[in-house]
């Protein structure tokens, strides 16, 4: 089975802002371009599941306009990580002590004091990932963090002990990765 991990187009937010769960639109032109490229590549019958954040739903609707033959739904488990009180703040404005507290206890620290821990985030994405078993090819319209988590899950990694284990690489805005998952 194949899992397509598609990252939303460039969000309409200033550079250097922490915006995990903040709900904002994405660039309309870039969204349309991504949808057009995907529509030409996607196989018949693939299921499309989107994060409910508008930057992802925007791409889902644009893709649906191109490929109405596909089944579409949203799933809150595909939302980006919740950065709590850091949401909407410039990364540079977040104190060094706060960032160090997160990297010191990377798995369990509740980001932004009231946000999500990496362990909770991995469990949430892991639940969506586990639900894929036996369901056939699927496309997730989602975020960089969810893509990174899914790639770890595909390698059998469900727990991150320290910050150095978290992948830095993710698809650019409006790009995707394709995972070949072994089911059985």
Give a short synopsis of this structure:
The protein is an alpha/beta fold and 184 residues long. The protein has five helices and five strands; from the N terminus they run βαβαβααβαβ.
Q: What does it look like?
A:
- The structure is a single chain.
- The protein has 184 residues and is of the alpha/beta class.
- It has a single domain (2-180), classed as Rossmann fold, CATH 3.40.50.
- 33% of the residues lie in helices and 13% in strands.
- It is built from five helices and five strands, in the order βαβαβααβαβ.
- It has helices at 28-41, 54-66, 96-104, 118-130, 144-154, and strands at 2-7, 47-50, 71-74, 138-142, 176-180.
- The protein has a five-stranded mixed beta sheet with strand order 3-2-4-1-5, sandwiched between helices.
- α1 (28-41) crosses α2 (54-66) and α4 (118-130) crosses α5.
- This is Phosphoglycerate mutase.
- InterPro entries: His_Pase_superF_clade-1, His_PPase_superfam.
Helices, strands, pairings?
Layout: E1 2-7, H1 28-41, E2 47-50, H2 54-66, E3 71-74, H3 96-104, H4 118-130, E4 138-142, H5 144-154, E5 176-180
Parallel strand pairs: 1-4, 2-3, 2-4
Antiparallel strand pairs: 1-5
Helix pairs in contact: 1-2, 4-5
């Amino acid at each position: 089975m194949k899992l397509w991990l598609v990252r939303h187009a460039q969000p309409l937010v200033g550079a250097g802002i922490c915006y995990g769960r903040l709900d904002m639109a994405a660039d309309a032109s870039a969204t349309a371009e991504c949808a057009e490229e995907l529509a030409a590549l996607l196989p018949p019958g693939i299921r499309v599941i989107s994060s409910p954040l508008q930057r992802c739903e925007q791409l889902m609707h644009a893709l649906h306009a191109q490929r109405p033959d596909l089944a579409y739904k949203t799933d809150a488990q595909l939302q980006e990580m919740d950065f709590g009180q850091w949401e909407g703040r410039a990364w540079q404005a977040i104190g060094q002590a706060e960032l160090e507290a997160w990297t010191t206890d990377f798995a369990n620290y509740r980001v932004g004091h009231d946000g999500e821990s990496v362990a909770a985030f991995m469990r949430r994405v892991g639940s969506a990932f586990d639900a894929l078993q036996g369901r056939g090819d699927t496309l997730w319209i989602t975020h960089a963090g969810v893509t990174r988590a899914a790639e770890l899950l595909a390698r059998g990694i469900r727990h991150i002990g320290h910050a150095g284990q978290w992948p830095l690489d993710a698809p650019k805005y409006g790009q995707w990765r394709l995972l070949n998952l072994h089911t059985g």
